[in-house]
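Researcher: Please translate sequence to structure tokens.
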Amino acid sequence: MRNTHQLYRERRNALLRSMRERGAGGLALLPTAPEVARNRDSLFPYRPDSYFHYLTGFPEPDAAMALVAGPDGDRHVLFCRDKNEEREIWDGFRYGPDAAREIFGFDEAYPISALGEKLPEFASDQPSLFTPLGLFEPWDRRITQLLNDVRDRARTGVSAPGEVVDVRVVLDAMRLVKDEHEIGLMRRAGAISSGAHRRAMERTRPGWFEYQVEAELLHEFLRNGAQAVAYPSIVASGPNACVLHYRDNDRELIDGELLLIDAGCEYRGYASDITRTFPVGGSFSGPQKDVYELVLASQLACLEAVRPGAAFNDYHRVAERVLAQGYIDLGLCSGTVDEVLENGSYKQFYMHRAGHWLGLDVHDAGLYQVHGVSQTLVPGMVLTVEPGTYIRPADNVPEHFWNVGVRIEDDVLVTATGHENLTAATPKTVAEVEAACVR
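Model: Translation complete:
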């Protein structure tokens, strides 16, 4: 297998080729994310910016990358923190420019303090500057200052870039299709998260609080090498399962209610995203089972629609049609399927899309439509498949359905022949879920 950092260099080369295809080349500049204070004297755990990570793999803060597509050839340049023995005693290891250049496959590396000096040199006489716009406000100010600095040197015979291009347009398209290295990391993230959901089913008890279930998830994530959660875990019992982005996780679990868990780990930068719904007491009631079986039927139909050549929107329309028919059958909606879809009455119970891209970000980079036309699925794309049903108390809803919230979500890779469910090991059928809940 290729060296990991060779993969990052190949991605940078792909960006450089794209820059040259636009014209005479140019300069690409990307910063990593800044450290963020959590309180007076401590920081949040550091995570690099996803675009910067995608191109460099470099894990430290206070770093930036420059790619120069010049007439004399391409240059890969990294700026990072200097080695500092005193700070390393307090905060841990630093690569420093010399080691970073060699280990991460750059042609040149400089201290981050040299950024202001070097960038005008790199930007002079470049036709275009490729950089993220509006990502970090301090970086936007630095780019404005850079352009002004180069313009101030006009009397020396140099010119500033004539256009500034948001580099994320190119990178979003690149990130949309995962390579084998990325797919391997996402398989591992999915496996860890699948085990965490199974653990939650096995250990949850009536009388627990939602945060105790969340602790079981975190235990499984961390003990298997995940670095963090991919997003704040949703552990939603009873009526909370009908709140799509519920976050409090502080309600007591009541026997006979459903528990909806939407949780996934981040493994080496890559997200997983699984939702499962199960009965707190171990067995579905009749109405709960009816709704669960409907959502499951919808999810399975969606999976069948995920294949190369299909439009991204196809499986969303499948979810709507299956659910609309189910709501009619359950007495929640009236009319034909086409009428229910046209008048939107189904949206009382299902109000979100059936999925999203997945990768370095849980809602990953990439367009869903291109010039108004749905994106076409190709091998290497990874997406979630997550229809749901959320039945809040209402005058037009039979009481036995009140507060029944169900969502079923898997992480799916588009393959050359169809798809691969990266989280298929997570219990999903009624029989599998009830068996997993046996104490």
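Researcher: Any highlights?
Model: The mean pLDDT is 96.
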